[in-house]
Amino acid sequence: MLMKIAIVRFGGSNCDLDVQKALNNLGVHAELVWYKEALEGFDGAVIPGGFSYGDYLRAGAIAARTKIMQSVREMASDGKPILGICNGAQILTESNLVPGTFTLNQYPKFICKWVKLLKIGRSPFTSLSSEVVKLPIAHKEGRYVVPPELLKELYENDQVVFKYVDDKGRPTSAVNPNGSQDNIAAVSNLEKNVLAMMPHPERASEKLLGSVDGNTVFESMIRYINAL
Amino acid sequence: MLFRAEITVKLKNGMLDPEAATIKKALKHLGYDCRSVKQAAIFELEFEADSRQNATDVAQGMCQRLLANPIIHDYSIVLV
Fold first, then answer.
1. Which of A141, A207, B11, B72 sits at 20 to 30 Å (Cα–Cα) from A22?
2. Phi then psi for A223, rounded to 5 degrees?
């Protein structure tokens, strides 16, 4: 049967079509699902970036309390892969599907630039990625904050997935774009099938865009679904 | 009974507050040298509840489920 991945849209999502194109390029049927519609019959889901509900209250806070997130939660507990990108990542942390939170950048402005990321540990979303990937970030609330005792657990359970690094692959404070704890750019749930990542893989999915490294995130997700 | 609640949500002590740091700098430009500046969000709500206790419980629920993020925020509730 043909694989079907849902792209969940909220008012203010704006990277939905980019994600759809990136997935289509990889031969996957990706369907846009408005948050009031039923989320049924999908093998995985992507929550794309944007500014859902104008980032009112906190980025991702309102979208996280919508009904469709209950369906996302059910998909996650069924072991299906859920990928949250940028605002999607903020929605996943606000939903408590992934620990910690993404809040205002250390220097409180919107940043849009290319970053280098080091793959940490093993994740279903990076099995096909090389050690260091080049992806763009575009956010104002991307500083990852997590209480110290939880941070320890994240490392023990291999939940840290990407870190911002320099050209030599070192997570220095100089290349930490937003003040994230330990340069963390992507985190997963304990079971590893839900990933919250601030960088945009869909914006690095064609040569014309400057990098194709983002495809490896989607390809890894597809590979994971095929193995389920 | 109609209750009015004033809920204050602010960053926990020790949490980095880049906006407040920027405001502190701007105050300094105006000649006000503050040792520290903190900012908070205040929500003024009116809602029906059976009793004062019930109103407090409802306000607590609102804070825990939406208004505050327990990782970074503390909140306080005043019924007025």
1. A141
2. -60, -40
- pTM here is 0.95
B12-25: per-residue pLDDT in tens?
Answer: 999 999 999 999 99
Across the interface, whether the CB atoms of A106 and B18 are under 8 A apart is answered yes
Strands A194-197 and A143-145: unpaired
In a 3-state reduction of DSSP, which class is residue A134? strand
CATH number of the domain located at residue range(s) B2-79 in this protein: 3.30.1280.10
Nearest to B79 by CA among B39, B60, B12, B9: B60
Residue B44 has pLDDT above 70, yes or no: yes
Which chain A residue's Cα is nearest to B15?
Answer: A145
Residue type at B76 in one-letter notation:
S
Q: What's the pLDDT tens digit per position in A171-218?
A: 999 999 999 999 999 999 999 999 999 999 999 999 999 999 999 999
Please give the domain boundaries of chain A with CATH numbers for all domains: 4-227 (3.40.50.880)
Contact by Cβ (8 Å): B42, B6: yes
